[in-house]
Amino acid sequence: MRIDLHAHSTASDGTDTPAGLVREAAAAGLDVVALTDHDTVGGHAEALAALPAGLTLVTGAELSCRLDGTGVHMLAYLFDPEEPELARERELVRDDRVPRARAMVGRLRELGVDITWEQVARIAGDGSVGRPHLATALVELGVVPTVSDAFTPDWLADGGRAYAEKHELDPFDAVRLVKAAGGVTVLAHPAAVKRGRCVPESAIAELAAAGLDGIEVDHMDHDAGTRARLRGLAADLGLLTTGSSDYHGSRKTCRLGEYTTDPEIYGEITRRATGAFPVPGAGGSAR
Fold first, then answer.
1. Which of 55, 61, 105, 176 gets the highest tally of CB atoms within 10 A of its CB?
2. 240 — phi, psi (to 5°)?
3. Are 266 and 34 in contact (CB under 8 A)?
4. Helix (H, G, I), strand (E, B) or coil at 70
């Protein structure tokens, strides 16, 4: 089985529609794909309606968190999307995205960048607006060559010159809320140093003690040495280890299935989940 547990659609900051994403996943030879848009489950219904035969969809979200000033992304799988407390927190984060993005547009303009809110809104479309949309605008304007190059202290990285804060969950609260909604939590790309400051291993240990299920080890932003170190840490802490592409369509260079999760780990994730269950495709509509 080929299993990719981290992918984004136009419901947040990917460039493929949810329907297009599941079709691409099937074409890439995946057996299982997780749709984990930022702080939203808005793409799930469309993805399920278009799910091709032979592909299983894991519903999820990537929750925006912050710990001691450091951004933390928490992958949440197979939770009940109607659970009220978690739904309310996701809504608070989403509602804060537009004011935050507008603030970053203002800061970029103060830095001499000829960016406009209209440009960013056009790029975001119906998705949940975020920094990748501003980064795409910077690419369009020729300020940086790639989206990744916008995530530096000069521009949009945590604490960068154009950075602005938004409402974010405490990761310990995220673990608690997802568990209460019957879901499974995996810390996304925990050692991606190019994105800015990383969560210290001591904090990962505390999260593990609080109920964190796993860490994303095999990821494009982790080199071989980092992956080996994280695997050792996970073994010490009794955490599951996953692998994923963190696919964003054409917005990033990663490909669906570039990194994958071991089928036994996937099986354990599904065994732990009680809020929702993976959905096998029966041949969806060609939307």
1. 61
2. -70, 155
3. no
4. strand
In 83-193, DSSP assigns E strands to 184-187
- Check residue 189 and give its pLDDT: 94
DSSP E strands, the chain: 3-7, 32-35, 56-67, 70-77, 184-187, 214-218, 240-243, 279-280
Tell me the C-alpha distance between 282 and 82, whole Å: 24
Residues 6 or more apart whose CB falls under 8 angstroms from that of 244 comprise: 4, 5, 6, 7, 34, 216, 218, 219, 259, 260, 261
Q: What are phi and psi of 105, to 5 degrees?
A: -60, -45
Q: Strand pairing partners for 58? A: 34
Q: What is d(CA 111, CA 154) in angstroms, rounded to the nearest whole number?
A: 10
Alpha carbon distance 18, 26 (integer Å): 13
| Amino acid residing at 153 | P
Show the tokens assigned to 104: 């970053």
| Residue 225 CB-density burial (10 A; 0-12 exposed, 13-18 middle, 19+ buried) | exposed
Q: How far is CA 251 from CA 109, 140, 173, 183, in A?
A: 23, 12, 30, 28
Closest CA to 79 of 102, 59, 57, 104: 59
Say if CB 120 and CB 134 are below 8 A apart: yes
Longest dimension (CA), the chain: 52
Tokens of 275: 């809020």
pLDDT over 80 at 284, yes or no: no
- Whether 171 has a pLDDT exceeding 50, the answer reads yes
Quick one: how far is CA 287 from the chain centroid? 24
> The pTM is what?
0.89
Q: What percent of the chain has pLDDT over 70?
A: 97
> What angle in degrees, to the nearest 10, is found between the helix axes of 171-180 and 201-209?
30
Tell whether the model's pLDDT for residue 88 goes beyond 90: yes
Per-residue pLDDT at 286: 43
